[in-house]
Design a protein that fits this description.
The protein has 218 residues and is mainly α. It is 51% helix and 6% strand. The chain binds glutathione (GSH). Glutathione (GSH) binds at residues 9-11, 33, 38, 51-53, 65-67, 101, 109-111.
Amino acid sequence: MLLYGYWRSLATCRVRIALNLKGVAFEETPIDLIKGEQHAASYRALNPQAVVPSLVVDDDAPLFQSMAILEYLEEKYPQPALLPVDPRGRARVRGLAQIIVSDTHPLIVPRVREYLEKGLGLDEPKRMAWIRNWMMKGLEAVEAQLLRDTETVRFCHGTAPTFADICLFSQVCGAQLFGFELSSVPTVMRVFAECIKLEAFDRGQPLKQPGAPAKIQH
Ligand SMILES: N[C@@H](CCC(=O)N[C@@H](CS)C(=O)NCC(=O)O)C(=O)O
């Protein structure tokens, strides 16, 4: 399989970790989002939305949207399962994942930040305030949900990682890349610490990808 991604991309991070957890071999081709390579005609031909990730399987048209790719991998490679077996549990895991992928991450992606800067003329401190606000609101919503529910154990849902952990992990990595203080979400950080103990998560994190800086620069 061929994954088009970028070291810093949180959506790519989700797919990378799912592939690692499932033990599926893949190669990654970087699309430099800072240089704007996602807008090149050659990449748009693969992904008309001009975003990463895209996953090419069997030389077919690329799969797109990280959660659709996770669902595909879950169906194609059922073990280890990344969703619970019971419908309620599956709904809870997908709900936790969606707090991140539907209501948090889309507000801070490069094209939104670029519009804040070039479209609305917001200066850097205001743009950072925007990012911090939405990032923390999302993580705090996950925190409250995890704290409330008895299904939260070692991971977001029980004792094995699920889609919810993958999404939580990616968003915490993003918050750390921006240098945000995360003491207000201790349960999220406890789950993050459990995730990173697993090689599949550790190997998939942004700072371990080719092209990433040796350490976080703010
Ligand atoms: N909902 C999409 C998000 C895709 C997305 O926005 N990816 C970002 C990187 S994490 C991107 O390629 N952004 C390019 C841009 O905003 O110009 C998914 O989960 O795959």
